[in-house]
Design brief:
single chain; about 300 residues; alpha/beta; eight-stranded mixed sheet; elongated; binds guanosine-5'-diphosphate
């Protein structure tokens, strides 16, 4: 299965770390807990989340008097799962009356444009009508890149001039999507992080203008994060969540990293759901995120 094989690198390296722990295993002692901490940090859980996981594994193991390594590694997977499901996720906000508007936000290079194309493909596969807004007018080439995807996918893409006002593109696109009775309008927005105030102003303007065109829009704001940037990605995510109302995360390039723990760290630190994961560069390489498939086979 492509889902599992895309995550091979990440899972294999985690399994190897866990297997390494089993070698000198003599029970839950200081040494074991330290080594577990190191394994979790290597998987990119970050210090805070990793410490929480270690404490919880220790508590549960002592409570239940777990002694074999297998029991403890099962307990570890259970703790990771519980950490993820401790937040209740809302279903995707759909505009039943008209166009559902999705904003894609994130820094340049995170995979925003490619992910927009992948998402379009998955909505088209469900028989939905999609319109795209190329509102990333600041990254050179981003507009053309999205327009090329749109051509390949056979969908309309509303464009603006390079360095033009992204909000103007969004207004045009919203009107076009309404007129053409689209189900979804996906907006590839600009991701400049150099200046938080600028980013905030840009994003809030984009929200204001679209609200006037389509009630309740944007219905979803998805932050695209490159999983290979590890803890940096978490800092970026914090800036975006402090700046605008992010409703979900799309984690890209998980195929290229051995550090899948970032999923758990994001959840623990930001409470946001991971909506999709990116496992490659083609249109098919986007998967709805599912915590059970994600953890499956982790400690074998
Ligand atoms: P943007 O600047 O955020 O719009 O980023 P792009 O969509 O241009 O993506 C940057 C690079 O990352 C491109 O070469 C993409 O093909 C690549 N990319 C995006 N998503 C993934 C993914 O899930 N896996 C891999 N391996 N590459 C990806």
């Amino acid at each position: 299965d492509r889902y599992l094989s895309g995550l091979d690198k990440s899972k294999r390296s985690f399994s190897e770390r866990i297997r390494r722990l089993s070698l000198g295993f003599r029970g839950i002692d200081e040494e074991f807990l330290e080594e577990l901490m190191v394994a979790l940090l290597e998987a990119d859980l970050g210090i805070k989340t990793a410490q929480k996981v270690v404490d919880e594994v220790e508590n549960r193991a002592l409570d239940r008097k777990l002694s074999s390594f297998d029991e403890i590694s099962e307990c570890l997977v259970e703790v990771l799962r519980d950490m993820y499901v401790s937040y209740e996720d809302e279903a995707m906000h759909i505009n039943e009356q008209g166009v559902t508007v999705i904003y894609m936000v994130g820094v340049n290079g995170s995979g925003k444009t490619t992910t927009t194309a992948k998402l379009t493909k998955s909505f088209l596969d469900e028989g939905k009508k999609v319109v795209l807004a190329a509102a990333d007018t600041f990254r050179a080439g981003a507009v053309d890149q999205l327009a090329t995807w749109a051509d390949r996918l056979g969908v309309d893409c509303i464009k603006g001039r390079e360095n033009g006002d992204p909000s103007a593109v969004i207004v045009d696109a919203a009107r076009f999507a309404k007129e053409h009775h689209a189900d979804y309008l996906i907006c590839d927005t600009a991701g400049r992080l150099q200046n938080k105030t600028n980013l905030m102003n840009e994003l809030s303007k984009m929200r204001r203008v679209v609200e006037r065109e389509i009630e309740g829009a944007p219905h979803e704001v998805w932050l695209v994060l490159d999983a290979t940037t590890g803890q940096n990605g978490i800092s970026q995510a914090k800036i975006f969540t402090e700046t605008t109302n992010v409703t979900g995360i799309i984690l890209t390039k998980l195929d290229g990293t051995a550090k899948g723990g970032i999923v758990i760290a994001i959840r623990d630190l930001l409470g946001l759901p991971v909506k999709y994961i990116g496992l490659g560069e083609t249109l098919e390489d986007l998967r709805p995120f599912d915590i059970d498939s994600y953890l499956y086979g982790l400690c074998e």
